[in-house]
Amino acid sequence: MQITQIRAIPFALSLKQSFKTAHDTTQLRELTLLEITLSNGCVGYGEIQSFLNTAYAPETQMDSRQMLGNLAAGLKSLQWQHPHAVAAYLAGKTQLTFVRAAVEMACWDAYGKTVGKSLATLLGARHRFMPVGKAVGIQADVAAAYTEIEKVAQAGYRRVKLKATALDQLPNLQAVQRQFPQMVFSIDLNNALPDTLKSVDCLETLKAQGITLVEEPLVGSPWQRYAELLATGRVPRISLDESINSVGDVSSALRQHAADAFTLKQGKLGGISATQRAITEINQAGQLPWIGEC
C-alpha cells in the first residue's frame, strides 16, 4: 500500500457549554481532520487532537500541522502492508505524538476498508458493546455539578470523571455514589494541588468518601511523591495523565512505581500501535490502564 494524497482540514467545534479544568476553560475546540487516499482508492480519516496551547500537552495544533507538511513527501514514498509499519516509520521521524497518531489513525481506517474489516475487529475486540464514561468540567457551584451528574446518569454512562481543584467544588460524593450505584466516580485534579499536608488530607478524604481513583493530583506531577503517597495505602489510586506523553514515559513511571493507574490517550502516546504497547506493558506490571479522552 502507498499513500498518494494527504489533505488536512482545520475546523473548530463550538461546545454547547464551556468546559473548565484546572488548566483553562474551553469554549471552542480547534482540531484538524486528516484525509489520506491510498493507491488502491481507499480513503481513510484521522484527527489531530492537539490543543492551541501547551497548558495540557507540549504539542500544539500549529506544531502538528507544520510537522504534517514536513512528513508528507516521505509518507507518500513509503510502501507499507500494515499500519504498524507506518507507526514505526513515524516514530523514527518525529517525537510529536499527536500528528503521528492522526496519520496512523487514518491509515488504520483506510487499511480496514481495504481488507473489509472494522477497526474493532482488526484490534481483536471480543465485545460488541463497551461501557463508557464522561468527564464533567468544573461547575459554577455544587448544585450545578450535581445536575451534570444527573444528566450523565440519565444518558446511560457508566463512569463519570469530575474535574476539580478543591473538594468544595464537588457534591457530597458518598450521597451521589449511593444514588447512582451503577456508575464509577473518579476525580481529575489536573495538577491543581500543592504538595502540602492539606492536599494529602484532601486525597485521604476522597478515599474515605469511596473514591478509588484520582488523576494527577499534585502540581508538577512529582512521581516520587506519588510513589510515597501510594505506599501509605491511605490515598486513592493515582492515575498519570499530564506527565505521560510517550510509551517511554509509561515504562519509566512503572519502574519508579509512580502510579497504579494510567490514563491513556492515543493522541498523546503517538497512535493506536503505541497505545497497544502501553496497555500490554501496564497489564504485565499488574496496574490499571484505561482510555481517556483528549
From TrEMBL:
<protein>
    <submittedName>
        <fullName>O-succinylbenzoate synthase</fullName>
        <ecNumber>4.2.1.113</ecNumber>
    </submittedName>
</protein>
<dbReference type="Pfam" id="PF13378">
    <property type="entry name" value="MR_MLE_C"/>
</dbReference>
<dbReference type="InterPro" id="IPR036849">
    <property type="entry name" value="Enolase-like_C_sf"/>
</dbReference>
<keyword id="KW-0460">Magnesium</keyword>
<dbReference type="GO" id="GO:0046872">
    <property type="term" value="F:metal ion binding"/>
</dbReference>
<feature type="domain" description="Mandelate racemase/muconate lactonizing enzyme C-terminal">
    <location>
        <begin position="142"/>
        <end position="236"/>
    </location>
</feature>
<dbReference type="InterPro" id="IPR029065">
    <property type="entry name" value="Enolase_C-like"/>
</dbReference>
<dbReference type="Pfam" id="PF02746">
    <property type="entry name" value="MR_MLE_N"/>
</dbReference>
<keyword id="KW-0456">Lyase</keyword>
<dbReference type="GO" id="GO:0043748">
    <property type="term" value="F:O-succinylbenzoate synthase activity"/>
</dbReference>
<dbReference type="InterPro" id="IPR013342">
    <property type="entry name" value="Mandelate_racemase_C"/>
</dbReference>
<dbReference type="InterPro" id="IPR013341">
    <property type="entry name" value="Mandelate_racemase_N_dom"/>
</dbReference>
<dbReference type="InterPro" id="IPR029017">
    <property type="entry name" value="Enolase-like_N"/>
</dbReference>
<keyword id="KW-0479">Metal-binding</keyword>
<dbReference type="GO" id="GO:0016854">
    <property type="term" value="F:racemase and epimerase activity"/>
</dbReference>
